[in-house]
Design goal:
The protein is an alpha/beta fold. The strands form 2 sheets. It has a 5-stranded parallel β-sheet, with helices on both faces. A two-stranded antiparallel ribbon has the order 6-7. The mean pLDDT is 84.
Length: 171
């Protein structure tokens, strides 16, 4: 790669949640997967690329990439996602790492924002480290401005955008 885009990312108990927003194909999922690799690789004894990588041992690493709607279940796409998220997040603790890629979809905007807030707050309160990629800028903005100062101080946000003049990606 001629000019790779470098990203400095720090996740810690003090800043445990990173929300990524931006348009399709801007790099949210790519960065999220790179972070996931940087966390998992050293735990397997593999090289983790980067100028500096320090990773604590994680008891569980979870990726949440929504599946197609399961019509046979008798529930809507949104309900299936909520059930799956609830099950996967029930064991979240300070030794957990979560990647949520467009985790909440399939309902009206108000329901999505409300559910996003609950999921993100629960993850933060659990002590887990998490990266969430979403198109719902308002959900991430709410977390940054959350009325609970303990939640607010743990949230970081990065917005991706395209610079059409330079045809490059700015973060």
């Amino acid at each position: 790669i001629e000019q790779p885009v470098k990203n400095d990312v720090t996740l810690s108990p003090d800043q445990s949640f990173l929300g990524l927003t931006g348009p399709n194909m801007a790099g949210k999922s790519t960065l999220m997967r790179a972070i996931g690799y940087a966390v998992v690789a050293p735990q397997l004894g593999l090289f983790s690329p980067g100028d500096e990588v320090r990773v604590s041992w994680m008891n569980q690493v979870n990726g949440f990439f929504p599946k197609e709607e399961a019509v046979a279940s008798g529930f809507s796409h949104f309900t299936n996602i909520i059930h799956r998220l609830s099950k996967e997040l029930s064991t979240a603790d300070e030794r957990s790492f979560y990647l949520l890629d467009e985790a909440l979809t399939g309902s009206d905007y108000t329901d999505l924002l409300g559910a996003s807030g609950v999921v993100y707050e629960d993850l933060i309160r659990s002590g887990a480290l998490a990266v969430a990629a979403t198109h719902h800028k308002v959900a991430i903005h709410y977390m940054v401005q959350n009325p609970d100062p303990d939640i607010r101080r743990r949230v970081q946000a990065k917005q991706f955008r395209f610079d059409l003049d330079k045809k490059g990606l700015l973060i």
